[in-house]
Amino acid sequence: MLEAKVYIVGAGPGDPELITVKGQNILKQADVILYTDSLVNEQLMEVAKSDAQVLKSAGMNLEELVHCMITNVKQGRSVARVHTGDPSVYGAILEQMRYLKNADVDYEIIPGVSSVFAAAAAAQIELTVPELTQTVILTRAEGRTPMPEKERLRDLANHHSSTCLFLSTTLIKKVVREFLEAGWLETDPVVVVYRASWPDQKVVKTTLGQLDEAMRAEGIRKQAMVIISKAANEELLKEEGKYESKLYDKSFTHGFRKGESVNG
Ligand code: SAH
Questions:
Q1: pTM above 0.85, yes or no
Q2: Domain architecture of the chain: domains with CATH
């Protein structure tokens, strides 16, 4: 039996097998399920109880949405609020939590597989390659939502870290410009993953210089993750001995394994 509260559940990127076991258990037991029908896979709702109320939230505004959650919980029902990917990135959950807190309604967040990780998996890349890049920046290009002063794409690009762009497919020209201005090369690798983990997923491996054209050629205008990263270079698979993690290095001692001395 679930408690009468709101469970904010990360649905994962699309593939219904990519929800967590915990998230799915909540969908099986919840009295009310509210999901963003434009982004969350409907198949996930197949496990709902036969008498569960399953509602699509795309047509609701924030007030309607929270009103629905609050009244149901106050009447003793459990509510699963299902978000795409992981709720903590571009999930717009803060405003929902604020209303719930004000109404004294408890909530719990269940993480999910973010599209950024589904995209990296589809592209078969490691985002953090030793000595190449050890930092991942999750960000977006500036559109209607203004970027904070200290987070201009150009400044972030200056770090030369793996940069994963959400919500940015229509702003690609600007993205490329800012990266080139920050010193990246036209030949630097980029991978675009459209609808990662869905049956119509597309993985486009290209370069900064060709990114705009490549996306246009594939007709990618939405629901895509753009990963700009030196680690997205396929040549790395061939460079044996370079950029390897110390974790498996024979001479490296760590908490679980004592390294061999390199000299003898
Ligand atoms: N919380 C979500 C992100 C929501 S914002 C997450 O963790 O994935 C919506 C943006 O996420 C889209 O514009 C797109 O950039 C990205 N996105 C969501 N699902 C995706 C998918 N299956 N494949 C590629 N990108 C996706």
A1: yes
A2: 6-110 (3.40.1010.10), 115-233 (3.30.950.10)
